[in-house]
Amino acid sequence: MAVLRCTLTLLLLTLVLGVNKAKSQSFIGVNYGQVADNLPSPAATAKLLQSTSIQKVRLYGSDPAIIKALANTGIGIVIGTANGDIPALASDPNFAKTWVNANIVAYYPSSKIILINVGNEVIMSGDNNLISQLLPAMQNVKNALDAASLGDKVKVSTVHSMALLKQSEPPSSGCFDPSFGDVLKGLLAFNNANGSPFAINPYPYFAYRSDPRPETLAFCLFQPNSGRVDANTKIKYMNMFDAQVDAVRSALNAMGFKNVEIVVAETGWPYKGDSDEVGPSIENAKAYNGNLIAHLRSMVGTPLMPGNSVDTYLFALYDEDLKPGPTSERSFGIFKSDLTMIYDIGLSQSSQTPVETPAMPKTPVTPSSQPKKAAWCVPRAGVSDAELQASLDYACGHGIDCSPIQPGGACFEPNTIASHAAYAMNLFYQTAGRNPWNCDFSQTAMLSSNNPSYNGCTYPGGST
């Protein structure tokens, strides 16, 4: 399976137009919350989104102004029903039909609505009456879509909290709380029958808050770390995101729903918090979201779902200044209300012109009494693919041009993690300052005087 893939469209753009790396990728989405009084206009937001690689937007409601603004942009739209609408949707098929006609049929297909989430984290609400009405509401919405001949175009699901899992560590032992077993079986049977996804909200940020050690932070931020071994499968996990998603995969498999797709409906990291909050910072938010995007773009997938990137909706497009709670709750935004970036994670299509691959060093004009040796950064022997993948994600997520190891690139073959990681690690070393610590990668790399270039693949080299 390819380690670093991109769609044919992106590859053609790269080869023919020479455009940047922040091209559109269908697995990158964003949450567009509206609990705020200072948001840009929907039209301005639509224009902003078109300038990014974001291809899907999740709304928590069905604001007609936003749905209209996104018309003819090609951006996929996920809309939601309020939890308060669930009883009426469940008990009255005509209400469901009216809702679908007003919120879907009126805008489709100009507005590319792809999914309806009936409620948000309903099962964890503790409202047994609401929980019991969730599946009937979803079914009535689906029936209304079928009546409008949209049942195969717009999917129906609901969004779940990670708190549904009774156990998530190690990932292979992931299982849902049995007290929700009957409800989940019905919902998952619906997902399975209709080809709709199981939407979940994994947040490594909250995992770090409950275990604020440096090694946990590196594990959560996709930074080089020693990894965590699943004792059952012997798989070494190199980041918390993969571990959490695979725990959900294991839980779904254990219930017999191996074919139900997972969608990450929310994940993110706050860039600001109160003085007593552990974890929020610009650096951490940029590292988490930026490295997550690099990981998704690598197309390596997770250990239990290799070779494919799960659709992931970043939280969030903007801050929501009217949200209650600690400062962090109002500080998950990626863009400011003036449409500028709070921090750059490589989403803008105009801000990531590829870094030119450095040329091989030329002979110095001034002779040196003792010529300097060329050096390349290469993986150490015996390093696992999981560790190399973490180093690959880290390097490609920090500003280097990884297009040579994408399909069609001069260094794509051999298509292995080891080969791709070797190229990326070396390029990171050469462009980051050629210091010994630039070729460490948690002790998975070393400097070598042997030029690893081959065939038409040139590894930039520097001097020691």
Automatic annotation (TrEMBL):
<keyword id="KW-1015">Disulfide bond</keyword>
<dbReference type="GO" id="GO:0005975">
    <property type="term" value="P:carbohydrate metabolic process"/>
</dbReference>
<keyword id="KW-0378">Hydrolase</keyword>
<keyword id="KW-0326">Glycosidase</keyword>
<dbReference type="InterPro" id="IPR012946">
    <property type="entry name" value="X8"/>
</dbReference>
<dbReference type="InterPro" id="IPR017853">
    <property type="entry name" value="GH"/>
</dbReference>
<dbReference type="GO" id="GO:0005576">
    <property type="term" value="C:extracellular region"/>
</dbReference>
<feature type="signal peptide">
    <location>
        <begin position="1"/>
        <end position="18"/>
    </location>
</feature>
<dbReference type="InterPro" id="IPR044965">
    <property type="entry name" value="Glyco_hydro_17_plant"/>
</dbReference>
<dbReference type="Pfam" id="PF07983">
    <property type="entry name" value="X8"/>
</dbReference>
<comment type="similarity">
    <text>Belongs to the glycosyl hydrolase 17 family.</text>
</comment>
<dbReference type="GO" id="GO:0042973">
    <property type="term" value="F:glucan endo-1,3-beta-D-glucosidase activity"/>
</dbReference>
<keyword id="KW-0964">Secreted</keyword>
<dbReference type="InterPro" id="IPR000490">
    <property type="entry name" value="Glyco_hydro_17"/>
</dbReference>
<dbReference type="Pfam" id="PF00332">
    <property type="entry name" value="Glyco_hydro_17"/>
</dbReference>
<keyword id="KW-0732">Signal</keyword>
<feature type="domain" description="X8">
    <location>
        <begin position="375"/>
        <end position="459"/>
    </location>
</feature>
<protein>
    <recommendedName>
        <fullName>glucan endo-1,3-beta-D-glucosidase</fullName>
        <ecNumber>3.2.1.39</ecNumber>
    </recommendedName>
</protein>
